[in-house]
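Why does residue order matter? Because the sequence determines the fold. Keep that principle in mind as you read this record.
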Amino acid sequence: MPSIDIRPAVSNDIQTLVQLTHSSETSHTWQMNNLYEEGQIQASFRRIRLPRPFQLEYPRQPAAIANCWKRKDLFLVARIENQHCGYLTLEIIERQSARITDLVVDVPFRKQGVATALIFSAQDWLRSNGIYRVLLELPIKNEAAIALAEKLGYVYSGFMDGFFGNREIAFFYSLTVR
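Structure:
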């Protein structure tokens, strides 16, 4: 496994990070079913296979990074052999928890531990800053990110319809870091 260097972002990183491939391919999604009965409302999700692979666009405009990167509470960059390969951003919520808002790994570097290294680095930073709850927000079609969250011990903690700018449903996964 290659050595992954994780460090805080600097302004010179931004243009390179915007150029990373933010989209991914998926062959599954989660289908939402609602049940409304007197005295009961129920929402359930069922994982389904799509008829053909689907190109999943990133739910935010990558170019927006250039405008908001300084407003993030943490912005980490991953590099392998001095080549930018991914990044993570997070925001602190009321000094008690944080939410990871962006997690991107460029195509040639996927499945090499980059996303895991970014998440672990963010968790270490949160612990050192006295924050012990972290939330991941993920599009329901991003099967790779959902599988990673579950592999790392994150627990499904809810959803929100139309959460992202593209009106995609978001799944939320949370973890208490100690």
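The mean pLDDT is 94.
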